[in-house]
Amino acid sequence: MPSNIPMYLTWLRIVLIPLMVGIFYVPDSWTAFVGRDLLATLVFIVAAATDWLDGYLARRWNETSAFGAFLDPVADKLMVATALIMLVQLERLDAILAVIIIGREIAISALREWMAEIGARKSVAVSMVGKIKTTAQMVSIPLLLYHAPLAGLDTQFAGTWLIYVAAVLTLWSMGYYLRMAWPHLTGKADSD
Q1: pLDDT (tens digit per residue) in 125-150
Q2: What 3 state SS string does 125-144 have?
């Protein structure tokens, strides 16, 4: 396993996941200085920032690795899925939206793994729609976690609106990836 700063940042993101959840289960006195919602939001934002930073540093310093390429998306999906499940538990998000987003992540991850097995992973490389979907998720989740007015912004309304956008983009990007993989799924890629 590689030992470098980008890898440590990925591991930090994974370690922050139970911390984010735990904030909602500790006694009120432990989070009284900032409040549960703000503290959980800050932990999520730090975790999300490590997602960008570890990839940037790995590419800049040429410290990419096969293990890092595996672990980074796993950490991302764990972080998002955990936050979505928490938001459903807190009644700030409809369960159907969480199911759509998490279900798509599982399906596309499996599709990418299968495509890699047959040597066609580039057919399902990350698309611009996928990047926009991720951005909508990464902005909506902190808004829903914070759940209080912020400089006149109704964070619950804005977060809900953005998570619906993310859900639509989730389905759209899944359709895109399936369309790119379709020739391989039907066995017609070999006949071209």
Answers
A1: 677 888 899 899 999 999 999 999 99
A2: CCCHHHHHHHHHHHHHHHHH
Q: Is the dihedral of CA 58, 6, 23, 79 positive or negative?
A: positive
Question: pLDDT band at 124, cuts 50/70/90?
Answer: low
Give which of 142, 137, 129 is closest to 163, Cα–Cα. Answer: 137
Domain boundary assignment for the chain: 1-91, 94-187
Residues 6 or more apart from 142 whose CB is under 8 A from it? Answer: 41, 44, 45, 48, 159
Stated pTM of the model: 0.89
Q: Which of 137, 133, 110, 144 is nearest to 38 (CA)?
A: 144
